[in-house]
Amino acid sequence: MAAPAAAAKGKGPIIDPALCRCCRSIKKCRLLTTEYEWMGKKEIYSDMFMDCFGLLLSHLDGDSKDCCVCATCVVRLRDACAFRQQVLQSEEAFLSTKMHPKEDGISKVEVKLEPPCTEDSDNMDDGDMHDDDSTDLPDTKDEKIQVKSDSEPICERTRAKDKVHVKREIIHKMNKLRAKLDHMLDKPVKLKSPKKETQKLKIKKKQQELDHDYMVYNNAVTIVHNSYVCPFQNRISIYYCFYCRDQFTNPVELREHTLTHNPIELFQSTMENRKIPKIDITRIDCRLCNDKIDDLETFKRHISTVHDKTMYPVTNEFLKFKLTIDNLACTECNAVFPYFDVLKKHMIDHFGTFICDVCGACFLERNSLRTHIKSHTKVEESFPCEICGKNLKSKYSRYLHVATVHEKKPTVNCYKCEASFLSYALRNRHLIEVHGDKRTFACKLCDKVYNRRKTLMEHNRRNHLKVYRHQCDLCDQRFYLPSRLKEHMATHTGERNFRCEFCDKSYPRLQSLQEHIRSHSNERRYKCDVCNSTFTQNGSLKNHMKSHHGGYELDANFS
Length: 559
Fold this sequence. Notes:
Blueprint: E1 15-19, E2 26-31, E3 36-38, E4 41-43, H1 45-53, E5 68-70, H2 71-99, H3 156-186, H4 194-226, E6 230-235, E7 238-241, E8 247-248, H5 251-258, H6 263-270, E9 278-280, H7 296-305, E10 319-321, E11 328-329, E12 336-337, H8 340-346, H9 348-351, E13 354-355, E14 362-363, H10 366-377, E15 383-384, E16 391-392, H11 395-406, E17 412-413, E18 420-421, H12 424-433, E19 441-442, E20 449-450, H13 453-464, E21 470-471, E22 478-479, H14 482-493, E23 498-499, E24 506-507, H15 510-521, E25 526-527, E26 534-535, H16 538-548, E27 557-558
Parallel strand pairs: 9-10
Antiparallel strand pairs: 1-2, 2-5, 3-4, 6-7, 6-9, 7-8, 11-12, 13-14, 15-16, 17-18, 19-20, 21-22, 23-24, 25-26, 25-27
């Protein structure tokens, strides 16, 4: 959430997300300068830092997100304060015991001037009054210490002698300690363990990553809150509203719709796993004034100097696009692409900083790289359908298969109303008939026209981009679909797995079997443009053209 959540049971506000000033983590935090209640006591964490450690934290009057402490650090602070209080209490008890001893019947210690002692001094030799260290002692000629008790008073000379003895012991111990320190300083310095150094480097690197991610995240929030940039998501070439997931094929409609949402309320809570957001920068401008700005770096300087917003010295907070209905241009190098997916892959050349050490694949985000690395060691799983036995790639694919094929549940929702359908084709028909959509998608590289954008994309990948990922192990041929590769392998093995149900003929490819079956139904789909003769198979038409029309070939037309 962007603003502090409501106080729970009067215990104080919670900021989510915020930066903890103690451990630099970004999570739910409490304010350092606000009073909170815990176990029936009031506590202000900034005061506790001052009382316990003598630390005066800086910039506590700034942005609330920068003046916080997380729950983990609060627990440690409470423990430290409790330990400090325990030490103080123990010291007080110790001093009290020393000042009021109760051994040997002594009940009170008192410093008092008394007349010279005669009782004990008569029994003492004059030599006892002149010790080697007697010059360091206070002058006791006119004073002496007397302890009142039920027993006999202690003589001044005896007291002075005890002090000399204690002082000698202290000097002896200090000399031993000084000699020990000198010996330690003479020893060679022991090098730090390589493991400890590596651990420290890892911690430092992790800290730098956290600091960088925090600055990028805050810059992104500041830019979206104070400008007219349009954050969005996409699937294939369909654009989704960043806030409510409405679908659009026209970028103009997407931008107009996004303006109906309040980014200050929704942007932070909608960001998914701190991923780099995609934004349309067709219009930037400033929301706080009337300045027209068309460059993101110019806007960052404007918002920090004119409106005093904090902008950290980092770049590439977003993947930047200028969305148009026709060809799309890269904002970094002005290269032009016919489809958004091709442009998005091209952006890896500019911003792909995360590289796989195994295969060299490049990614825009750290999480994408981590997911990819798992694919090198992951054992492929299959999720068979319990009804028909078909193997699916994931649990979600199996759920869709069971829902649509066996249970006939409508799983494809209309993004303009509450209707749902069994297939995308039925939804497209609904969009045309009910909502008046023009569901015609023409290929920009040839004259083909389709009623689904996904079909157009598959046509482009298969016929123009030549994305053939499935290669035969025995020859150099490649295929778009794995099923085509499987059919092709039959030409190497001689297998004929597709058998006609009307006769005994078999074929290595399904398409060949389907053409053969038309000969049984007398369906003449192929027509000669010269003499209007019709045929059941395309091969028969070609033979007819060669034998009757002098090898003149025309494109076959279906009747």
